[in-house]
Amino acid sequence: MPNPSVQAPGERFNFAQHLIARNAKRSDKIAYIDDAGLLRYGELAQRVRGLAAGLLSAGVRREERVLLLMHDCNDWPVSFLGALYAGIVPVAVNTLLTVDDYAYMLAHSRAQAVLVSATLLPTLQAALAQSPHEVKTIVVSRPTQGLPPDEIDFEDFVSAQPPLATSADTGPDDPGFWLYSSGSTGRPKGTLHSHANPYWTAELYGTPLLGLTEQDICFSAAKLFFAYGLGNGLSFPLSVGATTVLMAERPTPDATFKRWVGDTPSQRKPGGPALRPTLFFGAPTGYAGMMASAALPARQAVALRLCSSAGEALPADLGQRFAAHFGVNIIDGIGSTEMLHIFLSNSPSRLRYGSTGWPVPGYQVELRGDDGQPLTEHPDGSIDTGDLYIQGPSAALMYWGNRDKSRETFQGPWTKSGDKYLRNADGSYTYAGRSDDMLKVSGIYVSPFEVESTLAQHPDVLEAAVIGVADAEGLTKTKAFVVRKAGAQVSEDALKAFVKDRLAPYKYPRQIEFLDDLPKTATGKIQRFKLREKEQTSP
């Protein structure tokens, strides 16, 4: 159920117009900082209206889709909000995908136009060549050379028409935008969200839990095309008039540190302090890489007051080491594309490293058994490991054109997450792995994440992934794939002993293989299924 202290959107509601209205008195305040310059709130509103007018003039009709294939820059929020303002549905897609992926998405979404970064134009053109698409207009952000007649410069497109004076008369449950799910197996699913959904994530999580104010400067390693990044870099800061730093390049430790300390031309203020982020949003893999970097900034070099982590569960040791170095906590939480942002989280006032925290007020969670029924609570308040279900106002409407998957995931008011969790006696929840990653060893369920977290505590281990493999008798045993830190030489036997000292004997990995890198999705999540495939094809 929604948090009763938060007012629901009215009968008519357009999310882009909602943000413009909230910031009407902040026209001179900086909304975005990217590698090319600044975008103030007044300029943002004007460009959003200009882009909306451009799309309508190009013949795109209400609720038709436009593909948004763009690196994080100041043109991204203009594109996303401009489409929403016109009642058109932006389909924000990952910039790291293949030509085949884009060809599928173009056909599946029936996009009528594409808003694309110039650097991604060759990939888009290849996808268009092999897709039965309906694209009629291509708008190119920041081209470095002349464009052919069938492509339009973003700046010309935004300014060609008088800005649209009034937003589309949308309702809170009208189609707002799509995000494609990660699609770790099979085709990605087009997840359809309403105009109200980002409002709820900001009002239930961004403002009350993070304590965001207009004085904050946000910076997210997760890109805007991710559900996590969309909240971090758009819905949350724009809901309170904060400033956001956008970065087009990959969030490597060096690139992240450069923004943390304000060492980019756009962040430097002549005669004043640099515009340094106060909130950072990352993922465990990124935090691990930063803590292992020789270039890790000193505490006094950054202005961080709080950090967030999502994507995968944050190992307790990693969070504690980060907090010890910077004097800043990482609050771990879990969200999903289907729920749009975090619904279960630690908070600045209530933190338990090693857990994912407590339900965000306004959301309900439930642990269910294999029979689909809620698991019984023990006398101390704990609940055994089960499948996690969520109920909350930001749930997606459906998967486009996929009725079976929609019914499987969206079950009445509840959304099935696909994650396994247990509840601790204090009401916090601890991650136990993806439902399809759980292992049964010697007849007992083993969480790969528990073993991985233990391995990650070793000072020579950068990251680890655990899967189940069959032994000579066909019985399942755990196998770990480990990435050592640069220069480290820890042995297989030493790591086995390390885990045995900390976990029940049946949980330690019977085999350990050292790798240079682990396979990951574009969101940084470990792809254990690829490790299982690798194992099956090994001689």
Describe, in short, the structure shown.
About 30% of the residues lie in helices and about 25% in strands.
Largest sheet: 9 strands, mixed
Range of helix content:
25-40%
Tell me the strand order in the biggest sheet: 2-1-11-10-12-13-14-15-16
Give the terminus-to-terminus CA distance: 53 Å
The gross shape turns out to be globular
- Oligomer designation: single chain
* β-strand amount: 15-25%
- The overall strand count is 27
How would you characterize this protein structure?
With 539 residues, the chain is of the alpha/beta class. It is built from 15 helices and 27 strands. It has a nine-stranded mixed sheet. β5, α5 (121-129) and β6 (137-141) form a beta-alpha-beta unit. α4 (99-109) crosses α5. The chain is globular and about 70 Å long. The N and C termini lie far apart (53 Å).
Topology at a glance:
Blueprint (H helix, E strand, L loop, with lengths): L14 H8 L7 E5 L2 E4 H17 L7 E5 L5 H11 L3 E4 L6 H11 L3 E5 L3 H9 L7 E5 L9 E3 H6 L15 E6 L9 E5 L1 H11 L10 E4 L6 H14 L2 E3 L7 H8 L18 E4 L1 H8 L14 E4 L6 H11 L3 E6 L6 E4 L12 E2 L4 E5 L14 E9 L6 E2 L3 H7 E2 L2 E10 L5 E6 L4 E3 L2 E3 L1 H9 L4 E10 L5 E9 L7 H9 L10 E4 L13 H10 L2
Parallel strand pairs: 1-11, 3-4, 3-5, 4-8, 5-6, 6-7, 10-11, 10-12, 12-13, 13-14, 26-27
Antiparallel strand pairs: 1-2, 8-9, 9-19, 14-15, 15-16, 17-18, 18-21, 20-21, 21-22, 23-24, 25-26
